[in-house]
Amino acid sequence: MHLTHLLHKAVQQQPRRPLTVYGARERTAGQVAERVAHLAGALREQGVQPGDRVCILAFNSDRYFEALMATWWLGGVVTLLNCRWSPREVADAVADVGSRCILVDDDCMPLIAGLETGPVIVHVGDGPAPAGTVGYEDLIAAGPAVDDVRADGDTLAALIYTGGTTGTAKAAMHSHRSLSTSILGSMGYARSSEPDGSTLVMAPLFHIAALLGMMAQALVGGTLVFANRFEPGEVLRLLGRHRVTTMTSTPGMLQLLHTHPDFPTADTTSISTIVYGAAPMPEAVLTRAMAAFPNAQFVQGYGMTETAVIASLLGIDHRVGGPRLKSAGRATLHAQIIIGDEAGHEVPRGTVGEILTRGDNIMLGYWNRPGETAAALRGGWLHTGDLAYMDDEGYLFIVDRAKDMIITGGENVYSTEVENAICHHPAVLRCAVIGVPDEQWGERVHAIIVPAPGRSVTIEAIRAHVKTSLSGFKAPRTIELVEALATTATGKVDKRALRHHHT
């Protein structure tokens, strides 16, 4: 299935129903399809050909959805860039994929300061197009409508950035088939979207969970309501104003919503399904959230960028006091999961091992990284690096994250990357970075530092230093000063012992 199928389906069955809502803008499926055809034609006139990469660096909006559809309409490859990256990280990613065109909103314009000349820059903001850019609405007005190429399922559709064991970003390659498989398989296993309902797109669309949640709702019919970014008060107003039925969230977002001063008077009765994931959910936080949204079915999703979501919980199993409240769910209809040992052989039920998975939802590989692709997909399975055990009925229970990845507020942070930045500070002799439990963020970045002799270290100085080279969310929120780091018998930093001290 090609990903523009959902737009053709909406035009055929609900041409006059609102498909996208953003602020005061509301457009029907028919209007959106017409704009997409003209935008695709305009991008083609700008030199974008089938297979070319089109970057999107923007916060959520109706135009983000149109840009996705238009790129696929002409056979291009969308490349989703993180709005929380630094200019250096953005420039590296654009160069990595050899982008022909980049769409940027007003808030993200400062992030393209480091770009070399080359890609066409399309301004997707509401004001006048800055010098050196092309106006989004001008493109649509002038572009000729072109036919949808209706890409083959195996055609590369998206490059979505994730992390790696070295801490540097790499792009997972997904085809039309892998993304479509994930959407359809997840919908068949859990009610992640409501037929003819509406979904609030509040998690960033440069993350795969928000992207697929949006597309699942569009596929079954209904309306996409866009929140430019997550602001709890505004989200609560949108939920009531548009009678939203489903939303995809992180644990931190849910906590900020139900603890907001406006929550007691907000109308959230229309919410039928809340899909959450992307970060650890403390049981106490989940219990409070389920009490705050009593009409909603809670569905937990387990997965990663490379898998486009591979497991979720049925609502009947996901209940306060239930034995599987802490479970990450069972394999969805389109995926196979086993718990494997170091050789990739399945271990007995109840034994901790690595989550291995395969199916048509799995990425094609990493862009321009054949060695890392071969390592991740060895033996015909995707090796996730996550440690878990499985019970006798196939439910997963995550026990640890290999590779020392930290997930804070739905963002992936790799400890080695932060450690490298901290160690460049002249007052730091040695450091280790770990994730520690945090009720709001799921995990927070915590640095354990051995100061250089005769030097003092403050959290303010460390955060400011890290932000000079990395995104702000990667800077440690807390630090701990020690005389020496715990090490294993081989002299390596013992992060398991460090984490144990904070649990």
TrEMBL record:
Signal peptide: none annotated. It comes from the Bacteria. Pfam families: AMP-binding, AMP-binding_C. Residues 8-367 form the AMP-dependent synthetase/ligase domain. InterPro entries: AMP-bd_C (IPR025110), AMP-bd_C_sf (IPR045851), AMP-binding_CS (IPR020845), AMP-dep_synth/lig_dom (IPR000873), ANL_N_sf (IPR042099), ATP-dep_AMP-bd_enzyme (IPR050237). This is AMP-binding protein. PANTHER family: LONG-CHAIN-FATTY-ACID--COA LIGASE (PTHR43767), NONRIBOSOMAL PEPTIDE SYNTHASE PES1 (EUROFUNG)-RELATED (PTHR43767:SF1). Residues 417-492 form the AMP-binding enzyme C-terminal domain.
